[in-house]
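Bumping with the actual sequence this time:
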Amino acid sequence: MSYREHTKVIKIGDRVIGGGNPVLIQSMTNTKTEDIESTVAQILRLEQAGCEIIRCTVPNIEAAKAIKEIKKRIHIPLVADIHFDYKMAIAAIENGADKIRINPGNIGSPEKVKAVVDKAKEFRVPIRVGVNSGSLEKGIIEKYGHVTAEGIVESALAKVKMIEDMGYDNLVVSIKSSDVLMCAKAHELIASKIPYPIHVGITESGTVFSGNIKSSVGLGIILYMGIGDTIRVSLTGDPVNEIATAKLILKTLGLRSGGIEVVSCPTCGRTNIDLISLANQVETMAADFDHLDLKVAVMGCVVNGPGEAKEADIGIAGGIGEGLLIKKGEVIRKVPEDQLLETLRYELEHWGEN
């Protein structure tokens, strides 16, 4: 069953999630939000990489006020991330945030939560209700003995009900954990219990290396179950790295088309070219051709290269001082080794002309 087909449609700025709409890619800035120049510059880089929704932290009133100017200079919806101070949520909404992210459990009293909900209702701004495994209430941890998927879901459902009881259902839900299997189980448990779109991510997943692996496994499991309407790959590093991973996860699962998929062999003793460097250069180059929906193969030898590249639309295979240009498994011509990359670029630039 694909739960995402049946979730409520929520509008975030000029984008929509839920109801079977495409799964959108998010990221989060790591600049000081009140540093408008740095924040805008980073968001524009993220936009170019393919980010579709951006989240900024709002820890102080300067950051809240900066949203107004930032919004004038970017082209994707902006989500304000709020912790502890309900006044920051209100200020962020008043300054143009397209959505706010709160954990009602750390906002304070029900009266403070209601003040945020009332302001969101006034401006028709959706609220993302976020619960992390690291911030579960003491009572829930005591009930289950430790942090569990069941406890995460119970906490999230209670917070959703709190806001629903305040007369608001313009909601997105996120339940995150750094434990991949716990996170997947929690999503499986909650998907049939709420009508709202779900934001999916593996929180605190780690560096570019470990974070990519954990996020790919976790998001892959959850999305394959038909759960998730928007995603974020959380990495310790340049957030631009998150976007390429998110795009490839969605493409691998058949949830997104377009863009070049690069496949390459793992190399062996028959390899006579610097295939590792070549494959990395092709992958970097492929980012320039997001408008093409192609599979590109980079193979290390002319022995198995043509056969292994048969399922690819186009490929190159190395030899001794030269290589092959291959289309659909058929050798088109031989090319000097130092011209392989530029030959492939030319073919991509003129794809569809012949």
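The tokens above came from a reply further down the thread. The chain has a mean pLDDT of 90.
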